[in-house]
Amino acid sequence: MHIARIVPFLLLVLGAGCGAERPPEEVAESGYRGLVLDPPLPKPDFTLEDTDGRPFDFRAETEGKLTLVFVGYTNCPDVCPVQMANLAAVFGSRRELDEEARVVFVTADPRRDTADRMRRWLDAFNPRFVGLRGDPDTVHRIEDALAMPRSIVPDTAAEAYEVGHSALVVAFSPDGLAHVVYPFGTRQSDYDHDLPRLLRDPWEAP
Amino acid sequence: MRRRVALAVLGVFAACAPGAPPAERGVEVVEARLVAPAGDAPAALYLTLINRTSAVDSLVAVSLEGAERTEIHETMQHGGMMHMTPVPGVALPVGETVRMAPGALHVMVFGSEAVLPGDTVAGLVELRHGGSVPIRAVVISYADLVSAAPDSGGAR
Question: Is A187 in the B-facing interface, judged by CB distances under 8 Å?
Answer without folding.
Answer: yes
